[in-house]
What we know:
By secondary structure, the protein is α/β, with parallel strands linked by helices. It is 43% helix and 21% strand. The chain has eleven helices and 14 strands. It has helices at 15-25, 47-59, 74-77, 98-119, 133-142, 157-171, 209-213, 216-220, 222-238, 244-259, 307-332; strands at residues 2-10, 34-41, 65-71, 83-86, 125-128, 152-154, 178-179, 182-184, 192-194, 199-202, 205-208, 267-272, 285-293, 296-299. The strands form four sheets. The protein has a six-stranded parallel beta sheet. A three-stranded antiparallel beta sheet has the order 7-10-11. A three-stranded antiparallel beta sheet has the order 12-13-14. Strand 13 (285-293) and strand 14 (296-299) form a beta hairpin. The protein is globular and about 55 Å long. The N and C termini lie far apart (49 Å). The relative contact order is 0.13.
Amino acid sequence: MAQPIRVLVTGAAGQIAYSLLFSIAKGDVFGKDQSIILLLLDISPMLPVLDGVVMELQDCALPLLREVVSTDKEEVAFKDLDVAILVGSMPRRDGMERKDLLKANVAIFKSQGGALDKFAKKTVKVLVVGNPANTNCLIAAKSAPSIPKENFSCLTRLDHNRACSQVAIRCSVSATHVKNVIIWGNHSSTQYPDVHHCKVNMAGSDLPCFEAVKDDAWLKGDFIATVQQRGAEVIKARKLSSAMSAAKAICDHMRDIWSGTPEGEFISMGVYSNGNRYGVPEDLVYSFPVQIKDKSWKIVEGLAINDFSKSKMDATAAELIEERDMALSTLAV
């Protein structure tokens, strides 16, 4: 069995983590022969709850789980990390202005970026989940100058999975028969779910998505709105945010980083925009189609972008620029 890897989950007493930790600990993400040391970080008032989570993990009697450490101290949580999954963030409260939410999260992710820089391995793979995920990821990366920017990504796989599922339901096929959808931009309601390069396997043949669905108006209208608004719809129905589906998306994202993407397929994740060939401004964490090999991602190049797509890609970039500039102005204060 491989040497244990050290995996941190922040916000570890929360909803998403509760759905996530079992999958990580039993080998669904890093492999069935990869033993794990789990580090669980949360704020001090949540430590009693975290104790209960630790008890449950112990009671699962999982063969790959070597140790569980729960803490409210960054110097303990971030020590010698191989993987950091940053789920915890300040949630938006009633009456809270967007700039206040950004300011609170800048403080959290500046601190955690600094802790990564100081305590984690320089090879650490960092996934930011806490919202606003793209901008939080950018702040964490900027606060950890000794760790390569390529090691940071943010979660748009939930949006990607939502898009796959909507197409699959429409075509009456399994979600595994839908590949190469793209989420461009921000993990927000401006994101652009793009199916112009998507293929749907129907009766053994890969068809272009528009040909398989046979409803261009839906694909350019309600489909996009459904994916963009899905998180809000879940909250409206459950009175709680997406947890099970978010945890599944985190597992998918980290498993692909660890094991690579299948030949000829790409997935969506928020990564550093520098050097992209799609006209997306530099110095953003923006969701692109990527392929992954040897734990390194590469933006898929050469995809044709029509005017419809370009306008939506530009709109979500504009929102990210505004978020970034607001966040950086609070950093400078």
